Amino acid sequence: MPTIFGIPPQALFGQLLLGLINGSFYALLSLGLAVIFGMLNVINFAHGALYMLGAFVAWLLMTQVGIGYWWALLLAPLAVGAVGVLLEKSLLSRLYKLDHLYGLLLTFGIALMIEGLFRHLYGVSGQPYPIPRELAGGQNLGFMFLPNYRGWVVAASLVVCLATWYAIERTQLGAYLRAATENPVLVQAFGINVPRMVTLTYGFGVALAGLAGVLAAPIYQVSPLMGSNLIIVVFAVVVIGGMGSILGAVLTGYGLGLLEGLTKVFYPEASNIVVFVIMAVVLMIKPAGLFGREK
Question: Rounded to an integer, what distance in angstroms lies between the CA atom of residue 160 and that of residue 167?
């Protein structure tokens, strides 16, 4: 059997696929973080808990109401976005004029409360969520076997990431959002309700986390710990890409996921730290991140 650098093709491409799957979630979650930080200047440590909340909403819709995966893709992000709007209006809006540290501490506390509530209600063991019937099975590509659902996750996350980038960077609404972060008083003078725009932006950012949670539910078990296990890596991705950079969040998320997959093939012992090593190197060379702008 032919090999690539001494590795069987099935093993190499299988790990690359796993890396691409992880990269899809890194990209979606870091995209939401970048939107929130770029528009609101809030370091949202509750993002991992809201990702977990999206998965649990999908699971509860299935087990308690009988609503399946496809409707959960719409309803769970809306529910998580509504929670985000409530948090922004009641708590975060009071901190915008204070140092970033206050927002980080508040959202960290919110994350602990959400995770603690679900650990109390459901324990730490994971809950299974079935793959939708339409996406069961897979495709034999010759050099590897591609499960249909994993291919769907990669494609869906890529479409969402590109659509979000286009909306923020290439549309009039995105121009208003960017202008509101630079000079909210001037934008308000043009008749635009800046506080409402800020609230909806936060709701949209956390809705992306909820969507990622629904996509992750059939791959990983739905567990109260699923957000805390991922959020540290996602923050590292955001720092490497550049805080607030939409394009940086997307490209870095996918790139680091693939690099993590390659590391598992050639040097498995380093796969858990490779992202943090890269973060340290990037911060030494370019403190603003690969796509960030120097202040």
Answer: 10
